[in-house]
Amino acid sequence: MIAEPTRVLVVDLNNFARYPTVAVGYLAALLRQAGIGVEVFSPLRFGVPGVAREPRETRARGLLRRLNYELEARPGPVATLARAARVRAPGESRRRARLLDRFERALDAGYDAVLVSTYLMYHPLCVAIGARCRDRGVPLLLGGSYFSQEEVGAAWLDVPGLVGLVGGEVEPHLADLVRAAAGGEDLARFPGVSTPGGGRGPACPPLRDLDRLPFPDYSDFPWDSYPDRIVPMITGRGCGWGACTFCSDVTSTVGRTFRSRSPGNVIEELAHQARRHDAELFTFVDLKLNSDLSVWEALLGRFQGAVPGGQWIGAVHVGARQPNGLGRRELEAARAAGMVRITTGLESGSQRVLDLMRKGADLGESGRFLRDASAAGLSVRVTMIHGFPGERAEDVVASALLLERHRRHIERVSLNRCQLTIGPPLLSRLRALPDGPSDVVDLRVDPRAAQASHRYLPADDPEYRRATRRLLDAVSAINRRPISPSARRFEGVM
Ligand code: B12
Ligand code: SF4
């Protein structure tokens, strides 16, 4: 008798309503390459969108941002209640019920294993999915970008039906892992895998030869549900700078250490995906697209050859170290190559705070970049951090001033309260501090979410609060401006 080929269902809980998920594209391609049958369960197909990113700015949104700041700066019963009210957003429980109902129906098709790729905020959903897998006797594998942190992974091992939690770049042995899961074997021998029984495979080293991977397969995504056909691309893993003390991107599963694909392999994929999906819009999800200058230069010189008339966006790090690939001429070349929007982590207008962050940035160089990128016709988006330990009222004023001064050069600002996350040195250092005077108090670590709630004492200073209001005003003033027509198709994407 010939054995039936293994069939699996891959569930995408990174679900983003604008383009497919890179991880799921890789999983599907690798499994199919190994002869395993794959179906992808994308919640968007059933009208369940992911978290909305940067919707259009309105006066009400500006006010909401203020309110959020007030709440987040003050952990306590009122803030907890208000946050709970936000979590129970209208329609949320209906969408969840629909998703679980569809998932149950999907299980009727009979799979040998279910693979879920998830963000940490979906723990309750994973528990519900797991319970359904357990009831049907289908083994569940969970993976995602944050499970490489041991403390975080350990807090997820209670998901029902789970046979293995995956926190590594498991591409080389993915097919064996899935077959072993389907066959009911113990998975603790596989690198990067933990099991509910307390087993733990050896460490899973970062993947070196990225050119050997197949191109991600996005054919299962609900292309008709996206407002535009945008294809995600990743040219390398990790960040060429990699030193910022707050950055959980470089402690996430694939972020650890920088590795790049070759320019030729990247250009080949661009042409392939454009053909395959009849697409001309690309978003590069690299943490720092100018990490490997040979790849960055290949995009400037060869993107249009691969995708004639195409457009693209990406994030760069404006480091003080030269060359950073972001001179006036290169920015003009990027625009000519179809780049329409560029994102960078500006983080602070205070050089002192940037140095505390180990951002590797110089305010003079950042200002020059903002002017040149905008003059080149690029829509500039920046991210900023508020409440970084050590930040004082004058630093917040400096951030507001930086935005005010560059109002004409910046089109969107994403301002974030400093997050303390498991992985980066910032939180590890705070946790290692002996009890005693510190600016950061009421530290409560939630390993399941990889976050630590906290209170930043200087934020109670009236001067600091005044400075924060000025910063929020500067953010709102920029975000209310209409986006450049050339970048409009990417609004809200990054
Ligand atoms: C691109 C990106 C986005 C994009 C696209 C997301 C998408 N749906 O594709 C956008 C900009 C929309 C986005 C949004 C958000 N993101 Co995001 N994002 C990233 C980023 C930079 C790259 C992701 C990526 O494509 N990586 C490449 C792939 C190949 O790696 P991977 O996902 O880790 O998958 C590999 C392995 O983990 C493994 N794997 C993954 N899943 C599974 C499952 C199984 C079963 C197996 C066997 C293996 C496996 O296989 C893959 C190949 O090795 C990561 C940072 C990072 N370094 O990964 C953050 C990151 C994933 N995002 C993060 C966050 C917090 C968010 C937001 C919540 C931010 C916000 N507040 O708005 C939103 C939420 C979006 C949503 N819908 O839920 C966090 C996740 C933390 C967490 N809580 O889980 C990360 C790690 C950043 C960080 N350091 O904080 N994001
Ligand atoms: S430059 Fe960006 S991606 Fe790189 S370490 Fe700093 S914050 Fe993280």
Automatic annotation (TrEMBL):
GO molecular function: catalytic activity; iron-sulfur cluster binding; metal ion binding
Pfam families in alphabetical order: Radical_SAM
SUPFAM superfamilies, A to Z: Radical SAM enzymes
InterPro entries referenced in this protein's UniProt entry, alphabetically: BchE-like, Elp3/MiaA/NifB-like_rSAM, rSAM, rSAM_horseshoe, rSAM_sf
Assigned keywords, A-Z: Iron, Iron-sulfur, Metal-binding, S-adenosyl-L-methionine
Radical SAM core domain ranges (all copies): 225-460
Gene3D superfamilies, per the entry: tm_1862 like domain
Keyword Glycoprotein: no
Cofactors demanded by this protein: [4Fe-4S] cluster
Xref: PANTHER family: ANAEROBIC MAGNESIUM-PROTOPORPHYRIN IX MONOMETHYL ESTER CYCLASE-RELATED
Name of the featured protein: Coproporphyrinogen III oxidase
Upper lineage: Bacteria, Pseudomonadati, Planctomycetota, Planctomycetia, Isosphaerales
